[in-house]
Each structure stands twice: as C-alpha cells, then as structure tokens.
Input
Amino acid sequence: MALHKKRRKRQLSGTARVEDIALVWELISEPHKHPDYGYIGARISVNVADAARRELIVEFPFPTDKNGDYLPVTPRQTFTQGEIDNAIRLAIEDGWDPGSRGKAYHFKVPD
Output
C-alpha cells in the first residue's frame, strides 16, 4: 500500500488598513468542491487588529478557465493586497461593521 504525503496547509496571513481601521487577515481554506454546497473558493478570516470584534469571512470566487468553466484541479489562489482591501471595502458596504460584536459575517466576493 503506497503512502501519500498529505499536502501541508499554507500559512498565509497579513495586515490591511481600510477606512483607518487596522485589520489582520489569515487564509482559512483553499478552493475546494463541497459535496453539499458545490464549489467554494478560497476563504480568509479578517479581524480588527487590536480588539476581539465581529469576524469577517471573505470567500473569493472559485477559479475558472477562460470559458467560465470550473477548473478540475484546484490551484492555490494568490491574493494581492489590493484584492483583499477591495473585498473588505465591499463587505463593509454590504453591512459588515468591524466594531460590532456577534456571529461571524460571511461575504462572498462577486465574480
């Protein structure tokens, strides 16, 4: 029986400053296909840097080819600081309040 090495989870994190709020983010999952929910893109967790407040979970679109079809093998997505800042701004416009408390706010970035 052949043993396969398990692919290590990437440790990817960083900081952002949106609307004069210092934020920290961390990759929580790579793109994958879920049996019940379908194709799920890479997700990051965003929190206020110096306080325990309401968490934001940002889901990026699942990678597709130039025809718009989902890729059969999910590559590791890369993020630019601009993409992350823009996703956080969109989440704030959508209703996430970084200063509030409560359950995590889930935001799916539009394609």
